[in-house]
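This is your field. Have a critical look at both lines of this record:
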Amino acid sequence: MTVIRNVQAELSRFRLRVLVASIVVVGCFGLVAARLVYLQVTRHEDLLAQAENNRTAIVPIVPNRGLILDRNGVVLATNYSAYTLEVTPSKVANLEQTIDDLAKVIDITPRDRKRFKKLREEARSFESLPLRSRLTDEEVARFGAQRYRFAGVDIKARLFRNYPYGALASHVIGYIGRINAAEKEELENSEDPANYRGTDYIGKLGVEQSFEPQLHGITGVDSMETSAGGRATRRLTSQPSTPGNTIKLSIDIKLQKLIEDLYGERRGALVAIDPKTGEVLAFVSKPTFDPNLFVEGIDQENWQLLNESIDKPLLNRALRGTYPPGSTYKPFMALAALTTGKRNASTLVNDPGFYMFGGHRFGSPETDRTGIMDMRAAILYSSNAYFYSLANELGVETMHDFMAPLGFGQITGIDIHGEVRGVLPNQAWKRSYFKRPEQQKWYAGETISLGIGQGYNSFTMLQLAQATATLANGGLKHKPRLVIATQDAHTRVESPLAANPAVNLGFKPEHVDTIRRAMMGVAQEGTSSRVFAGASYTSGGKTGTAQAVSLGKNEKYSAIRTEERKRDHSLYIAFAPADDPKIALALIVENAGFGSTAAAPIARRVFDYWLLGQYPSEEDLAAVSRGQATAPIGQPRLASEVPLASVSGLPNAAALAASATASQAAGAASGATSGALAASATPAASAANPLTRR
C-alpha cells in the first residue's frame, strides 16, 4: 500500500526542531559568553587578586624596636639578633613526640617546655611559637642536617630586647612581653592594626609601655613569589620597615645606680627633680627586678619569687607606694599658715612636749626640744605641738584646699602609666571612702594629727618631690617628666619634647623665702646638720619620721622591741644649692627609723654627686647602705672616673646599639608573661596617738 507523505508537515516539524536546537545552542553559547564576561570583566580584579595570592605571599617585616638612652646617651635598652627554634603546632602531627625527638638534636630544658606550653595556651595553633632561643651555630648546623625529619619546625632569626644594666632603673625603663589576648584585641581595634602584623611583643611597664608607639616603629612588607608547595622562590616587591625612634630619658643612670647602691638591701623610694624644668634626674624604687627575665617569658619559679616576695620588688614605690609624710609636711603647713594669714613667722607657741585637745593628749618624742617656738624654730627642731595647734587653727578644709595645688593627693601627670593619687583628706573624701554613717563623720580630733603629716595623709614620693621642687622654685610648679627627647632612627635628628609651661601658685616671695631659710637652718643647725657638716654648698631640707603602724593609747614606741617591718619610716626632703636650687628631692627608707640617720645621708651623697661631681668612697657607700653614716667618710672619688659596668653578660651597650641599628632581622621577643603587675600600695597609717620622731 502506498503511503502518501505530508512533505509540507514534515518540513515544518524539521524547521521547528532546527529552530529549537538553534535556540538551545545559541542560548548555551550566550551563557558561556555571559559567564566569560562575568569572570573576565565583572570579577576581573577579585580573581586577579586571588590568583596573585595563590602565587605570592605577603610577609611582614617587623621593625627594630627603638633604643632607650639616659640623659647622657648611655644605652639602657637595646636589641640583639639570635636564632630561635620555632614550632607551628597545627603543622605537627604528634607535638610531644616531636619535642622529644628535637631534644635529641638540640638541648631543650624543662623550662623551655614549660614556657612553650604556656605560649600554646595563649596563642592560636597556627602561629609559630619559640621552643628554644639563642641557638649556637653548632645547634643550628645540627638541626639543619636533620630538618627534613621535622615538619612544622623551623629556625628563625629574631631580635631580642636586652637591658644591659639588669635591674638598674627597671621600674622606669619597664620591660617587654608577649602580646596577650586582651592586648591583641585592642591592637586589632586600633587605627592601624596592620602595624603589629608579625609582632609578638609589646611594652608592658614603664617607658617601654608608655612610649610603645614611638618605640615600635612601622612594619614593612615583602611580597614573595611562592611555589605550589608554598615555599618562597623570589622576592617581588619590598617595602622596608621603619625602625622605632630612640627615646632619651632625663635620668642620669650613674646617679640612679649610686642611689640604688646607697639603699643597699633596704626598701624605699627616691625622686630627684630639676625644680626649674620638672625633669626627673633619678627615679628610684627599691628593691628592683631584672627586666631581662621577662623578655623570653619568665618561668614560674622566678615569677613566684618576684610576685610573692614580702619585699614586693614589682611595686614601683616611687609611683605607686603611698606613705604618711611625717614631719616633712611641716614646711608646707607653715607656708599655708603664712598664705592664709592664720599665723606670721614671729608668732610664738609654747611647746611643753605635748598638745591637749578635747581631753586627749597628742604627744611628742621625749627627746624633742621644748619651749617657746616661733615658725623658724618649729621647723628647725620639728616641734609637734606647734603644728598640732596650727592644724586646729587651719581646719581640715583649709589644709586640703592649700595642699591640693601643690600636688598632694593629686595625679602629677608624669609621662609613665600607673600613678596613684594617694590621700589628701577632707570631709568629702571621708564620706566617699567609708560606708557606715558613723565612720563618715569628720571628728575635730582627726584634724590634729594631719598637721604633723600623720593621720589619713598618704602621698607618693613623686608628689612630695614635686611639692618640694615647687617650693624651691618659688611657687612655680612644673609637671615632672622622664622623657626629654626622641631621635629619628633614620636621620638621627634629635627632637626635644616640649615641656608644659610652669604653673604659678601665687605664693608671696617673702613667705617662700621664710620657709626656705628655715629649711636651710635644718641643714646648718637643725636635725640634719651633722649629715651636711663640711658641705661646700648650702641646702635646705626637712627630716621626717613617720609611723608605719598605729600606736595604742599610752603606748610608747621602741624600735628595739618593734618588729622590723613595723618600725617607723625615715624620710627627707631637700633642695640645693639653697640660693639657686638645681635639684630637689624626696626620699623614704622604709622601717629605717629617724629621718636624720637613714634618709638624710642618702640626700647628702646625691647632692655631692650632682653639684660637685663627687662619688662616695667604697667605705662611705657601704656605711650609708647599712644606715651607719652621717657626713661622708673616706676620700670621695670623681664621678667621671667611676665606671658603669654592664651586668647582662652580653656585649656592651654601645656594641649592641650599633648591631641593632645595622640589623633589619625580623623578630620579636617571646615573653610569655602577660599578667599585670598586681601589687598594692603601702597603706597609709591612721594613728590614734600619733608620735612623729625625728
Q: What stands out?
A: The first helix runs from residue 7 to 42. The two ends are 145 Å apart (CA to CA). Confidence is low (pLDDT under 50) at residues 651-694. The longest strand covers residues 75-87.
